[in-house]
């Protein structure tokens, strides 16, 4: 995989702003990193190369070339050009090896029949093996341990960084397959900017988003609201969502910053079940929230931050019933309230040139309460408690980088993580990054990831097992990348091998009847990821990415082949982009085995009428392919949505 951003091409690039909770160290003495503050690139040549600086994979901002692990970056320009209210389809299109399941035009839902499963290199987030972060803060549900995909809206993100392979040294449990870090938006120069985007289209679908950004002196803020809804392409597949986000920061001095933010999403989703056995009365009402506060410091040779975050969720679910199978309305309604709270403290120190050491400490507590309220039947008016429990973990870690020569960087890290029930886990990683002539980069890495079993697996619903132990996986990776033609052409390749043991699977109970969750599963995946981009001229650019995945034990939602190719035209008042996505060997079900192969064509265009008013349109699946991603849930045919954008 290329280790640079491959879609930063629609206009002259500006330096990407950094979340307030992560602060800078001085420029590296051996490889000059890019300025990360607001930069005026208006006079820069269109093919000037601006290096990528990331905050994922290390707790300080780093030139991406110095890291031994692979990181893909999807920037704000790419997010805007995609014209999607959700971040996940954008990542599926632009990050090789990553795939997200879907069941309709909008909305993922939770519980039975849910979509939004994030897979990276064959490890899926549905069981908590993929971690989503917002400005470095974990976002998974406290009881079920998985990301809630409907909470990750495009309006949040200045950019998204995807670290492939285990990131447990820095982020602990649930980061065994990789990390998606949403870096939130902020203003870089004094002023006030307000943007409104609204669209309407197929299946009575409405998309709206309002964003206001302010910077005045030492103060900056971002506030956004959105409302999205659709009737869906099948009866009983309606979805609506309300989202709000606000963040404020203040520079106390040249060395100290503070910031705080809150993100709230509520969605109502109905789901009709598989076409072979339609459901009635299946409905979900879900609220997810996140709040955080941080204080950060930057003294050049040392920098760091202390942050506090609190996530919460309320779930109300009616699982519905299948009349064709003789079922009647469910007597019970599932409810849960979960939360996760944490404190993260870290400090980066440069003892001498070419050196950076990070010392960090994390403490998390997560859990919640789940129950069933019976509204009819013989138990009407009663409540059945399913779980009411919290568990905690605390950890210390050290992350080390040393530039041995101008052409070689060594990275190593170790985390010691203690769980209140399971015990202590030791998590190492190490790697080398070679900076060779002709802008060639080579990377070698080995990293361990792990995941503690979640409350659902241990305490809720048969086949629960309170004696489960952590899962673990090792990822070995070789990466190559090169930049040619003064930055116009970039390409790269990744080869990886992933071996996991102690995986939690459901098997017949060896000591009795029924089924039981057990630590007997294995994962052995290998693959190749390719990516390239070519900035043809001031107006034209093209990119392509491909991933091949071999799984000894296939899982649903992870395609064997994924090819995405696209082109962007940006000139004058016009911005037009198009893309082809080819999927082959996608397991929609592994029992019984069912696979899919399909080609999707998308086309997006915007035209600026005045300096503040634009019109836009987006077409998806324009070849009207018939396909499924979730077994039994046919996807919509060709869809079109169009609207206006106002920027003042």
Terminus-to-terminus distance: 38 Å
Number of helices: 4
The chain-level mean pLDDT equals 89
Total E-strand runs: 32
Q: What shape does the CA trace take?
A: globular
Helix proportion of residues, in percent?
under 10%
| Weakly predicted, low-confidence segments | 1-50
Largest β-sheet summary: 22 strands, antiparallel, barrel
- What structural class is derived from the secondary structure elements? mainly beta
- Radius of gyration over alpha carbons? 24 Å
What fraction of residues sit in β-strands?
Answer: over 45%
Describe this entry's structure for a reader:
- Strand 5 and strand 6 form a beta hairpin.
- The protein has 648 residues and is mostly beta strands.
- Helices cover 4% and strands 57% of the residues.
- The chain contains four helices and 32 strands.
- The longest helix has 7 residues, at 76-82.
- The protein has a 22-stranded antiparallel beta barrel. A five-stranded mixed β-sheet has the order 3-9-10-7-8.
